[in-house]
Amino acid sequence: MSGEVTAAVGERGIVRVVLRHEGRLNAMSRAMWRQLRSVFEDIQRSADARCVLIEGEGGAFCAGGDISEYPAFRFDPAQLRDFHENDVWGGLAAMLACDVPIVARIAGACMGAGVEIASCCDIRVAAATARFGAPIAKLGFPMAPREARLVAGAVGALTARQMLLEAATFGAHDMLARGFLSRVVEPDLLDADTQGTALRIAALAPGAARLNKQTLRALGPGDGAALGLADPYAYADSAEHREGIAAFLAKRSPIF
């Protein structure tokens, strides 16, 4: 089995995305990267999705790439390019282009590909026992350029250098202090915390959330900087804009 990435829509439009690769700590296979792209392209097209909660099955988020597949393609430059530029970046780019807020529930190992996937999320919550790194120097290869830029932008340049040059790994509290994580909670509180976060996001105006993500992407570095916003005030007459203002003036909770 080469693993799978699944998506299921739950209450309030929360889409639960699960990385699943039994016996490999949810390491990403080529098939899983392609599925990740398809899943997030579907979420982007969905008018009902309000928040994505992404997690790994069992006790790990994602331990990296599926190294058992590597001898089949990594030693040929053309095949290696295809893997990174199409399979891997295809999945990551679909996450980065998703206008629906993404919450990462991180437990256990979050290494290499796991850090890359987490770097695409808007809010990252980790169990206190989670571990982070990208020790691929031990495997004799560097991180692909666009992936390295993504990770460095999320974890910080110094942390990225330690991960890639030292093969250093870090605990959750250290990554919180370095600005990568939103919160660190005890393992038995991780489910309740991330589900509560997703519910709070889902209860807010979904159109505003999508516009905020578009704005932040346009203002940020890298590929998104050139996108811009065609008309940032086109929401003026939207139903949720009118509802939000009307509810505030009426001193009631808005219904989005």
UniProtKB/TrEMBL annotation:
Q: In which family does this protein belong, per the annotation?
A: Belongs to the enoyl-CoA hydratase/isomerase family.
Q: What is this protein called?
A: Enoyl-CoA hydratase/isomerase family protein
The terms under GO molecular function for this entry are:
isomerase activity; lyase activity
Q: Name one GO biological process term.
A: fatty acid beta-oxidation
Family annotation (InterPro entries): ClpP/crotonase-like_dom_sf, Enoyl-CoA_hyd/isom_CS, Enoyl-CoA_hydra/iso, Enoyl-CoA_hydra_C
Q: Which Gene3D superfamilies match?
A: 2-enoyl-CoA Hydratase, Chain A, domain 1 (3.90.226.10), Lyase 2-enoyl-coa Hydratase, Chain A, domain 2 (1.10.12.10)
Q: Which organism was this protein described from?
A: Paenacidovorax monticola
What keywords are annotated for this sequence in UniProt?
Answer: Isomerase, Lyase
Name the domain of life. Bacteria
Which PANTHER family does this chain map to?
A: ENOYL-COA HYDRATASE, MITOCHONDRIAL (PTHR11941:SF54), ENOYL-COA HYDRATASE-RELATED (PTHR11941)
Q: Does the keyword Isomerase apply?
A: yes
